[in-house]
Amino acid sequence: MTVVGVDLGGTNLRVAAVEGGAIVRRQRIVLGEARGVDAVVAAIAELVAEVAGDAAVVPVGVGVAAMLADRRGTVVNAPNLGWRDVAFGAALAARLGARHPLGVYNDVNAIAFGELGAGAGRGARDLLAVFVGTGIGAGVIASGALVEGASNCAGELGHVKVAAGGGAARCGCGADGCVEAYAGGAALQARIRRELAAGASPAVLALAGAVDAAHPGHVDALADDDPWARALWDECGAYLALAIGNALTILNSDRLVLGGGVLGRAPRLRARLVAGLPAVAPAAIMRPLTIVDAALGDDAGLIGAALLAGAGVSLI
Ligand SMILES: [Zn+2]
Fold first, then answer.
1. For residue 138, what is the domain's CATH number?
2. Which end of the chain is more exposed for a tag (fewer CB within 10 A), N or C?
3. Which of helix, strand or coil describes residue 298?
């Protein structure tokens, strides 16, 4: 059976035909200025036609970097695309027609399902996948099924609170105290540059070369030696452990999949996160848990969206 996965990010539109959990054909275009919903729907339809092959029915799953409103692909907010309150799923379903049953999924949910089916989550039954990149996202699998939630927003781990009251950091979502406001890549990088500019660590600044070039990888490189870097990573690792450990305590997952650009370039931050989990989640929660790194890279979302549609999850 051929299924098609679509990864709709902010810069690239990628489409792939998936058979048996593996990509057999793929196409990619760079989204230019034409990123209104009509132009994107037309571009997806064109690429789907190129890769779909000749089967009578080819389901299509789309992973989109967006907060969704429902299981019909209504986008509340997709910052990278500039979309707000857009009936994307309905428009794409009308365009694709009956030959392509359509599902629209949050991108991190699609990634989590991809890792479950074909990557680091294979064999797991209850899986939590956490990605720390520019923001922080998660996908939840319970008893082998994706947890979508009442309005398709389950797994918004970045907006779990790790601080409350006056002085809690302001998040991009408008709320205060979200873990993403402390340990998401955008917040981290802004704080690193602000504190380096104020003289926090000559050693990290020397490694980065300039304040404007500093990123979490520079802090990570010196996080065992430089006092400021060590303290910053201890703090951020504890915040990540708090959010993830609390989620694990609710979910009792057997697999934790970690990924994303920040954790990828900051192994010492990852180590602090993992070391902090037992202080947050009870021993009975930690005992069955295996912690692994995401394995599929950029293809996870493509494969996961295809597998979800192929499994008939929330078809429109
Ligand atoms: Zn938030």
1. 3.30.420.40
2. N
3. coil
